[in-house]
From TrEMBL:
The keyword Disulfide bond does not apply. Involved in DNA damage repair. Residues 21-295 form the Archaeal Nre N-terminal domain. This is DNA repair protein. InterPro entries: Nre, Nre_C, Nre_DNA_repair, Nre_N. The gene is nreA. Keywords: DNA damage, DNA repair.
């Protein structure tokens, strides 16, 4: 499809641009939180709660190496626990911000303080947590509680939100969890480094969501080094490790043979992906609108970027943080399916419709599904940018000053 025809199909809805959902939706969540306390009171029997727990755990980072570690349990007695665990299925089901917040506030985070060293820890609260993490389906647990929950939301840019927290005195499994054979294999091998175990599980069909949970519970890596990994860190570690594995597999692949433009919009985030012929190179540019969740008081767009060349990066990305690794993984998965490499530019606009952070998973899925539909074809990278500039919230000059790929490729001889 010609690029101009492709762009015409994705012209912005002016009415949608004028919407201000933050106030409306935040009131909905406030009202929902009022219901959460009532659900908790119904779910608790004495000083314990019995129910089905999602195959997901949470590990905090404050105070490391002494951390808060938790088991996440839906409080609704008839809830399908699997629906509460962070998953790419949420995109397929069309979940929006309020859907995510309602599910996460509907889970009690039963927490205990623990040391991160867990090589041989398979009993007690941390042991139960690890069993929950490595199971391939939700398991029944009984959690002893000390006191009433803190009815609050914990939000950041990488982890999925967590809801009410209560101190746990103990947690016991009410059934034997089923552990997939590939996970058992990684646990049995005390000499297997975490990076190799992660890529092994990915090759065996485990998505990054599953691997993140297993890594966070300290179930991967060389035996003597196995530790609980704070959830925020483990999400980025898995995206980065799997991304490096995919990138390495493309080093001898042919490049794409045309400049293509892909787009998607999800949860108030707009994505444009440009793939151009050449050896692997990647950049994420984020444009955050005034009144959006990460730029609430400014009068103009905040622009951040991060870039890597053929050999990758040697330092952690600060400016775009986990979004860099999540969107890179999505692009590399697409190229891996095609057995092609490319120069890849991802442009992300965070609009003011992104009124509450729900985690970096929505970036990963937003870019993954940009490749589902049709795409536009341009004669050059320069032509692709020229075609998109009217869609972007910042001018080409500002983009060029912030982007290595835009500044470099615009002056390549193939563009003239």
């Amino acid at each position: 499809m010609r690029l101009d025809d492709f762009i015409e199909d994705f012209q912005r809805d002016e009415a949608a641009e004028k919407r201000r959902l933050a106030e409306e939706k935040s009131y909905e969540i406030t009202e929902y939180l009022d219901d959460v306390e009532r659900e908790f009171q119904q779910a608790v029997q004495g000083d314990s709660m019995f129910g089905s727990t999602a195959p997901e755990v949470f590990v905090g980072r404050s105070g490391y190496p002494d951390v808060s570690t938790g088991v996440l349990s839906p409080m609704g007695g008839d809830a399908d626990a699997a629906d509460f665990a962070t998953s790419g299925d949420w995109y397929q089901q069309g979940y929006q911000i309020d859907d995510v917040l309602q599910r996460r506030t509907g889970m009690l985070n039963s927490t205990r303080s623990a040391k991160v060293d867990v090589n041989d820890v398979w009993d007690g609260f941390v042991g139960t947590q690890r069993e929950v993490a490595i199971a391939d389906h939700p398991v029944d647990v009984e959690v002893g509680l000390d006191g009433t929950p803190d009815i609050d939301l914990s939000l950041d840019d990488i982890s999925t939100p967590t809801g009410p927290r209560a101190r746990a005195t103990n947690a016991d499994l009410a059934e034997n969890p089923h552990v997939p054979r590939p996970v058992e294999k990684t646990l049995e091998d005390d000499d297997w480094a975490a990076e190799g175990a992660m890529t092994y599980l990915y090759r065996r069909g485990f998505d990054v969501y599953d691997i993140n949970t297993i890594l966070s519970a300290g179930a991967l890596g060389q035996g003597r080094n196995r530790k609980l990994v704070p959830t925020r860190w483990s999400i980025t570690a898995v995206d980065d490790t799997v991304g490096k594995y995919l990138r390495g597999g493309l080093q001898h692949s042919d490049t794409v043979d045309e400049v293509s433009v892909w787009t998607n919009e999800y949860m108030g985030n707009r994505y444009w992906v440009i793939l151009a012929p050449g050896n692997w190179e990647y950049e994420l540019v984020e444009m955050k609108a005034p009144e959006s969740v990460w730029n609430p008081t400014a009068d103009d767009y905040y622009v951040g970027s991060a870039h890597e060349g053929w050999e990758g990066r040697t330092s952690y990305v600060e400016e775009t943080a986990g979004a860099f690794y999540a969107s890179r993984l999505a692009v590399l998965e697409h190229l891996h399916e095609r057995d092609r490499q490319a120069k890849a530019l991802v442009l992300r606009e965070v609009t003011d419709e992104y009124w509450a952070p729900v985690g970096v998973w929505q970036v990963r899925e937003g870019v993954r599904h940009a490749f589902d539909g049709e795409h536009g074809v341009a004669e050059s990278f320069h032509a692709a940018l020229a075609g998109l500039v009217e869609q972007l919230p910042i001018g080409l000059g500002r983009l060029r000053r912030k982007s290595n790929l835009v500044a470099g490729l615009q002056t390549s001889i193939s563009d003239f």
